[in-house]
Amino acid sequence: MAAPPAQSAPPPAPSPASSQPEATSPRPRTIPRVVTSAQPRTGSRALRLYRLTIGKKAVMAVSGIVFLLFLLLHMLGNLKIFIGKADYNNYAAWLRTMGSPALPPNTGLIILDIVLVVCVLLHIGSAVELALRARRARPVRYAGGRPPQSYASRTVRVGAILIVLFIIYHLLDLTALVVNPKNIPGDPYDNVVADFRNPLVTIFYVVCLIVIGFHIRHGIWSATQTLGWGNARRQRAVNAFAITFSVILIVGFLAVPFGVVIGVVH
Hints:
The chain is mainly α. The chain has one domain: Up-down Bundle (3 helical TM bundles of succinate and fumarate reductases). About 65% of the residues lie in helices and about 0% in strands. It contains ten helices and no strands. The longest helix is centred in the middle third of the chain and has 31 residues.
């Protein structure tokens, strides 16, 4: 008998490795790039700090403290007018010889003026930059109006413009004597009396000083928040101090024109 034909061997079963899809090489991980609005790290450390919002607020706070100290000393000096003409004129003459004999005449006063001018420029410049930055951050107005604010906060910018105009007029009036009606060099007592015998000048001074009082009250509160001196527990005490200090300061300044009006100073 013939042998049955040989059967062909079945094909080999696929191995488990060959049944899976071909492995692909892993993609390199990409690190997401963080976009930040920080200023470039150029310039000194103080300049980099000033570019930040908190830096500008700190500059406004420190320059504001310098103004408060100057105004307090200025107010105390003005009250010498109630002692008499000689004492007030001697005080004005002492300002021009402040620091002598170590310093030449007028040197101490010039240094004080330079410090005040630098503080004014830094204060105004920081305020303008912060206002522009806030406007860029919120180009759309608040829905339903702005959040509730105090009167001093709402009028701080308009008040600042009026204060600048008042400072310019005050310097032209009693320092340069350009617009003073008496215009007697070396006799500030009579120049002050001549000023406040004009009702329009007196009203202008009173209005500007009241505006300065509101500005001081708001500035003290803002400075304590910026410098970290105020918190929720101290808020009432800070507000009380700001109101008390501003009232005492402005009443002291207003005493001079009212003294001339009622005839105490003549």
